[in-house]
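Comment thread on ticket #2218

A.B. wrote:
> Attaching the input chain for the structure job we discussed in standup.
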Amino acid sequence: MNASAAATTTTTAARTTLLTSPYKRSNKANGESNDVNVMVNKKIGVHGNDGCYNVVNGGVYYGKASFMKWTLDDVVYVARYHRIPCVFAVGLLFFMYVEYTLRMVPDSSPPFDLGFIVTRSFHRAFASWPELNTSLAALNTVFVGMQSVYILWTWLIEGRPRATISALFMFTCRGILGYSTQLPLPKEFVGSGVDFPVGNVSFFLFFSGHVAGSVIASLDMRRMQRWELAWLFDTLNVLQAVRLLGTRGHYTIDLAVGVGAGILFDSLAGKYEHSKRKAVPVSGTMKKALLS
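C.D. wrote:
> Ran it. Output below, let me know if you need it in another format.
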């Protein structure tokens, strides 16, 4: 009897956890518990009807659509305590209006880039002062070298390959995308022989490996709690982005996607490491160096 009661309690608790919504208004302030409400709702339904909850293979199936149970209190609660999704909802509506009413750029005109407009003064300075452009390009190349040295250091010296794997993922994907869609070089491009890649060679515009590499290094620094170094890299990354826009070396979308790519491939490298730790028995110096 006790075993049966314990099993029933465990099943009820599991269902309660599954049915609790993070967006549901909490009643704990009124001395009540969400668990009790869910239990009642499961038995008699929100509006006094049978909710007909069924758990099949880990999935939860409701007798009624979720939105039919919303109340005004729930809407107010979401607006008060989940403001970020609400802001994005407003943004969705706003940019739907912008997209459907905006006149598209004709094929005879250069691409419109808001970053180019914002950095007009920098572009004029770089175009009229070659020495400044060369100096900043050289400093930017040093920064790229700092990123590369740090990422390789984490693997070769510290035995942590995540940042290196992330960079390999990122640059391979960048090469595929960059070759697949080859954007035209802006007509106002101000190049330099000391800018990376050194020697005025060709390069893929989409997406920015400069920015993505810096993000990968910064994320690793934060994992290791090297906060000052991480903030330094973030600051240099922002200055790098401004310079790249000012020289017309990248479009704004290249830089924005570079940030996202750094975060994405760092996450994928982490998942790869986790899967290998579970699947591959580590033995030998080389395997330990790769998977430690």
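A.B. wrote:
> Thanks. Noting for the ticket: The chain has twelve helices and two strands.
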